[in-house]
Every structure is written in structure tokens, then in C-alpha cells.
């Protein structure tokens, strides 16, 4: 049994009280005296030459303070990209310029052309309408394959083509994989689209820039998952402001899902403008603006091939993917279809040979970057779809085909053919758990019952693995990352024993204020209410890399544990002095320091007081105070894995798919707060099911975003989803971080799309539509119905 | 600019607004009640839901002038008089019905109106009733559970936590 409030307890979230009473403090809730409002005039064409931007008339409009165009930013840098991928020929990727405001050309609908700063938002918006922009329209580049044709128009004139890179992994295996296919008994092929998605956290992006003339200090309040990263990128690469003069604050943030990792032009623009106009400048995105300016997700076209021997052992896997980068390289964009995707193509399986080819392509569309799962959903989707297809073509049970090829529990640590080493796992166990919880055995009877009602019932399974706890800095450095991926924590013990923790992780829904406090409270043996978690402000926390890639507890939590251990070590020294015993004899348990084998002891508060009121204190050998900082750089990724099952019905008259049950059996390693972990899985499942059934980002032939609002982009709503069955009782603790945790934030979004599509195909094939072996996501009624009637 | 007066969370308030000022802006910018959130510009997300004369209304969809004289209730007015969480708010916390908290005010206001109309809804009725509120974080599982629990129903049988 976990201790009350300790590790393993479903402690209720302390942050909820402010959110439930309207007292959350999100960026848009921040208003600074004298603040002006920014409005961005954006391109309404996908591709064009910017002939002129005439702001004369607009500048005279009421309330207008200043209008900024590209010329104003001539002296600053462009928006940087944080990852440089090297292609399969050893050449670095093509990296275009990304100006803060469009310069010379506009490259996607939504590309910002000018920023109006005015006394009110309405005045700024009115003035933007009066700006005269002359654009010579150019043919837009939209389709990735067309974009690579030699005569295709170029998104970036200064590049040799629209190809960002042509990446091969593992390049040395290319020939061996081809050979394996030649001799294979079975060769399965599948063409897939991983549909483009919009992250759509419910809070749109906001940025407020402030500048203090007397100190030269800049402050940016922004909706970010990683304020330190923004400070580094914007300060060092765009505006040339030293970290000491730049504070970035990300207060309560209303969800991120990846889209708030990146450094965006609007952040730099308001920070820059605040100094120019000597007043705070606030920008709040409308939802329509978010649809054309937030980095989007996925958008891969893939051919995947699987070779099997006559006994159905996987021999080799080969993929060719086109990955859409959009018009510019967003912060981590190049790494997503490569290192976060190719390295997962072994999945949970023993496939000895893997070759992944990815062509990243520039198009006249909104930039694409990480979205919940980032690369790993794409890998899992391909793999779990082709395994299902193979099972059907070979006439074997998809569960058994997976089981046969699983890396077996006694094979860990397991070196995959795609560089990574899985430390631990037990995929048979998660599969068993799934089959049990979903009553797989009873499916046939349920399918019969559906049939009587004229419905087609299907069951789909997927097993996923992901690489989380991102990431070992030295490794990612070799792979092209331009940043380290450690995390930091400062543990400040106060004189009366309470603890303030400053973490570089950022919580925007994950509940760190609760879970991080649980961990430290248990380590020290005090009540969690004595532990306060502070995050989101570069002025008080050590340099940290923020929250994404399911890394907060695995990396940020580890930094916190490390710093807390330093605290405990020092506290023991103080205790040994006060108790006049040798340090080795001091035992620390439940907030008490005891001399082993005696009843002589000091409480936690005795020690913390002594540290700050060092009257009786070993000053010659120990500094006063009790505050420690630690940085933790993981030695490996963590590898959460799990089995997901989807049971659904199709109405053959309409093609409508209804999910009846969804079960998730995950191995997240150790769990600190089961309630929160389950909530993370629920949210991930909703997004994955959303991708599979509803969501789709569609551009027309002119590059206009057709799905540009919640009226056209189908977000999952309460009545689209069932209650979920989730379980995390299969535990193989991570072997290389102190908490044994693996991360749970992205799993749901990774494992669920193939489970849904596999279930749809299962239902259709059982219902006699044996010609249907694939339908692209989202499996809308129209697509399902069309497939059924396309004999 | 025109003067508008109304009662918000039991207090009479007034302010100067333009004809185009939305109730949501009046609450947020005029009165500093920032618990009412703006999640979209097409009346689709429900983050802005408040009660006007007891009915759930998307405050981004009505002009401040249109509710002159009305009784308006926002998330800031939902706790018990002693400041403790109301039954519905407490059910959200107990069931982990919120993550980032951004949809939460609108979700609570919609759910409160739903329960006022239908004190013992079925799961399907709750899902249907909350269909105008988008939550990107929770997958709705724990929200639906919270609303069912707030209505006095036993939710212990519902899968997982
Ligand atoms: S802000 Fe009112 S419905 Fe979205
Ligand atoms: S809790 Fe984040 S949108 Fe609902």
C-alpha cells in the first residue's frame, strides 16, 4: 500500500482548486499597465512574391502606434531550427531562412506579413485591413511527390529543390534488407497516409512582451511548454539578448501536446516591439489564427513492406516515407520523421533487418512539427497495420503473429537493428492483460449478436513501443540536436522545514505540482503539503529543457530526486554534528535522523533550523543553508509499451463507425500517481481515436486550409467516445532512472490509431467485405461506405 | 460607448461598452473575471460558457448590451459561500475531471446547467449535454464520471479511476 500522499497514491491534484474556481492565471489573463495590442496581417495566399507592403494609410488610423514589417527586422536573426539532420549521402539537410515577418515571399496561408501595434485590439485589426499588400501569386507546392519533381516550383528560391533531406536508416542495411526480401517466403506491402493533424490545445497561443527601460530587462510571457528553450532560441538566435536580460515566463498553460514547444515568430515580434515602442505589447491568437500558425502534426505518406519466412518469422522491414515539413523548419521538425520515427521501426519485434527511408519535403503549407507522440505514432501505425495485413493474408491470428515475433521477456536488454537498446519490457504480459480486460474470448459471441442487429462488429489490436524520457544529450548531439536534453531541479529547503522546488519541467495539464511533491514528500518523510513546486519562470528556476516526449518525471523527476538526495546527504552531516555521532551511523527515515541502534534522534525541522541558524554547526567543514541543484542527463531513453484493443461496430447502411469499447494495457514502469497516469492515457486515447476517426487537416488545390475552424476540423467531443478501460499493472521498471518510471503522456495517442483501423478492417472482412484491406484515416462514414461499395 | 449594467455573481456591476463588445470580453476585460475563457472564434468550444438568468450561454456569442439587467453567473461564482468547492466542482477534482484547466470553467458551467435540467442523467445524456464543450486533455472519461457522481450516482463501477 502506498503511503498517504506518497509514491503510488492517487493523490488529488492541488492545482485543481484554482482552475475550478476561475483563478487559474493563463497568459491571456495577464494585462500589464499601458499595454498595447498586436495584430498580425497574414498572407491569404499560399505562395507568392511580396511586391509591396504599404502601411502609410494604416499608420494614420486611430490608435495605431506602429506597424512593423520585414524591414524592421532586418537587423535580427531568423527563427532558428533546433535540429540538423544529415542525409544518407552524408550531406546536411537544406535549411531555409525563416524570417520573423515574411520577406520577399509568402510561403503559406497564414505567413505573417506585418504586425500592427495599437491601443486596442479592434484598432489594430481595423488598421491591418487598411494595409495595402501587393502579392504576385505563384503556383503553390502542395503535394509532396509533385514537390520533388524537377520542374516543381520552389518554396525557397535559395534552395536547390524542395527536398529538405533524403535520410536512410540504417543506411548500411539497405542492401541486406533488399536481399532479405528477395529470398523471403512472404512479402507484404501497404501504402498508408498518416493524416495531418492540428494539435489544438484549448488555449490558443498568447505572447506578451514587456521591456523595462531603466534596467534593460526584457520579459516575455508566453504559452510555452519550455520557457528556457524559448529564452535560449529567441535570445541567442533571433534578438541577440543575453539570458541575463531576458526573462521568459510560461504561467498556467492550457494544454500543449507539442504545439507549444516551438519558438514562434510572434514571440520574437512582441518582445522586439515592446522595446521599440517602450510599452508592453500583447498578442492573443484567435482560433482561426491558431489553425494557420501553430505547427501541425504528422502528414506522412508511406509505403511499408514486411518480409516473412515460411514460418512467419519477420525477416526484414522496409519503409519509404515522404514527410511534410510545411513551408519552414519548425524548431524540432527535422528530427520527428527521422530519429523519433526510424528508431522505433523495430517495434516490439525481433525483426533483424530494418531500413527506413524518409524524404522530408517543403510545401506551401503550415509548418509541421511534433504533435503528441511525434514520429512514434507514425512508426507504430505503419508497423501495426502491416502486421495485421500480414496476418490476414497469411490466414493466421494477428495476436499469435505478434506473440511469435515479440522480443521475449528474457531477451532484455535488447539491441534493436535501429540503434536503440530497450532496457526492459514484457510484451507477452501486456498482451495477456489486454485480452483478459477486453474479454477477447467473448468477442465471437458479441459479433454474432451484432450481426443479428445488422451491424458489423470488429476487434482490432495494436502493440506499441515508444522511446520516451527524452533524451541522452551526447547521443542526440551526434544525431544533430542543437541542444542538450537534460533536466534540472533546485530543491530549496526553508528554515522551518518546508520545501520549495524549482523545476525546469513545465506542467500544462500533467499535474506536476501534485506528483513532484508526492515524490519529495516521500523521500523526506514530510507531508506533501509542505512541498511546493515552482515552474515556468526562467528568472527563478535553473536552465531546464521543459516538458514534451513524456520526459517530465523520467528526466525532470530524476533531477529532483538527485537534488533531494544531495539534501539528505547534507542533512545527515548536520544531524551527525548535532547528535555527536559519526555520519555513517545516522539513519534517516520518515523525517527523523536517528543514531543507529539508539533512541537518540533529531527531527527534520531540527536539522533545517540548524542549517539556517547555524549556532551549533560545523561551520569549518560545512556551509550553512540547505539548498541543492541537480542536473540529470539520462543515459538511455525509456521504453513504455502496451497492448491496445478496440471493439467497434459499423452500420453498413451509412458506413458510420461506433467505438463500443477501448482497452489499454500499458507498461509505464513504476507509477507515482495512478489517477493522473490514467487521465493521461484517456487524453491520449481521445487524440489517437480522433486521428483515426475524425480529425483531418485539408488544404484545397490553392493551398487554402479548408479545415480551418472547429466547424470544419472535427475535434472529438464527449459523445464521440466511450468510457475507456485502462490498466498499468504490468510493470517492468525502467532500469536506468532512480524512480524506475518510463513516461505515460503520449502512449494513448501512439497505440490507438492502428487499433481502431485494424478493428474497422476486421469488422468489414468479417462482414464479407474481404476486398477491403485498408482505409486511410480518418475512417469517416464516407470513406468506409465508399470502400464497401467499390467492388 | 454605452453604459451597461447587470448582476454578476450576485453583485451589481456596470461598465462602458461598444455595441460590438461581447459578454465574454466584458467579463474578462471589463470586470477582470478571467475565469471565463476564450477557446475559439466560431462558437464551437464552450470554454466561455456562463449562466444568464439560469441558462447556459456561450458568452462569446452574445453582446454585453443584450444581457443588460440580467443575472449572470460565472465560474467565479460557483463555489459555496464559504469558499469551499461546490458538489460539482468537488466531483471534478475527485474524479480528475480536468488537466490543463482551460476548458474547465465552461465545462463546469455547462454541467451545472445540465444537472439543473436533468438531475439524474444517464451517461449518454451527459455526453450529449456536454457536446458543445470541447476538452482536448481528458478524453471526457473523467468529466462524464464527475458529472454522474455530482448527480449522486454510483460511479465506482466505471472502468479504472
Ligand atoms: S469561446 Fe465561446 S464557444 Fe469557443
Ligand atoms: S482540461 Fe485541458 S482542455 Fe479540458
TrEMBL record, chain A:
<protein>
    <submittedName>
        <fullName>Carbon monoxide dehydrogenase</fullName>
    </submittedName>
</protein>
<feature type="domain" description="Aldehyde oxidase/xanthine dehydrogenase a/b hammerhead">
    <location>
        <begin position="21"/>
        <end position="139"/>
    </location>
</feature>
<dbReference type="InterPro" id="IPR000674">
    <property type="entry name" value="Ald_Oxase/Xan_DH_a/b"/>
</dbReference>
<dbReference type="InterPro" id="IPR016208">
    <property type="entry name" value="Ald_Oxase/xanthine_DH-like"/>
</dbReference>
<dbReference type="Pfam" id="PF01315">
    <property type="entry name" value="Ald_Xan_dh_C"/>
</dbReference>
<dbReference type="Pfam" id="PF02738">
    <property type="entry name" value="MoCoBD_1"/>
</dbReference>
<keyword id="KW-0560">Oxidoreductase</keyword>
<dbReference type="InterPro" id="IPR037165">
    <property type="entry name" value="AldOxase/xan_DH_Mopterin-bd_sf"/>
</dbReference>
<dbReference type="Pfam" id="PF20256">
    <property type="entry name" value="MoCoBD_2"/>
</dbReference>
<dbReference type="GO" id="GO:0016491">
    <property type="term" value="F:oxidoreductase activity"/>
</dbReference>
<dbReference type="InterPro" id="IPR008274">
    <property type="entry name" value="AldOxase/xan_DH_MoCoBD1"/>
</dbReference>
<keyword id="KW-0500">Molybdenum</keyword>
<dbReference type="InterPro" id="IPR046867">
    <property type="entry name" value="AldOxase/xan_DH_MoCoBD2"/>
</dbReference>
<dbReference type="GO" id="GO:0005506">
    <property type="term" value="F:iron ion binding"/>
</dbReference>
<dbReference type="InterPro" id="IPR036856">
    <property type="entry name" value="Ald_Oxase/Xan_DH_a/b_sf"/>
</dbReference>
UniProtKB/TrEMBL annotation, chain B:
<dbReference type="InterPro" id="IPR001041">
    <property type="entry name" value="2Fe-2S_ferredoxin-type"/>
</dbReference>
<dbReference type="Pfam" id="PF01799">
    <property type="entry name" value="Fer2_2"/>
</dbReference>
<keyword id="KW-0001">2Fe-2S</keyword>
<dbReference type="GO" id="GO:0046872">
    <property type="term" value="F:metal ion binding"/>
</dbReference>
<dbReference type="InterPro" id="IPR051452">
    <property type="entry name" value="Diverse_Oxidoreductases"/>
</dbReference>
<protein>
    <submittedName>
        <fullName>Carbon monoxide dehydrogenase</fullName>
    </submittedName>
</protein>
<keyword id="KW-0560">Oxidoreductase</keyword>
<dbReference type="InterPro" id="IPR002888">
    <property type="entry name" value="2Fe-2S-bd"/>
</dbReference>
<keyword id="KW-0411">Iron-sulfur</keyword>
<dbReference type="GO" id="GO:0016491">
    <property type="term" value="F:oxidoreductase activity"/>
</dbReference>
<feature type="domain" description="2Fe-2S ferredoxin-type">
    <location>
        <begin position="2"/>
        <end position="78"/>
    </location>
</feature>
<dbReference type="InterPro" id="IPR036010">
    <property type="entry name" value="2Fe-2S_ferredoxin-like_sf"/>
</dbReference>
<dbReference type="Pfam" id="PF00111">
    <property type="entry name" value="Fer2"/>
</dbReference>
<dbReference type="InterPro" id="IPR036884">
    <property type="entry name" value="2Fe-2S-bd_dom_sf"/>
</dbReference>
<dbReference type="InterPro" id="IPR012675">
    <property type="entry name" value="Beta-grasp_dom_sf"/>
</dbReference>
<keyword id="KW-0479">Metal-binding</keyword>
<keyword id="KW-0408">Iron</keyword>
<dbReference type="GO" id="GO:0051537">
    <property type="term" value="F:2 iron, 2 sulfur cluster binding"/>
</dbReference>
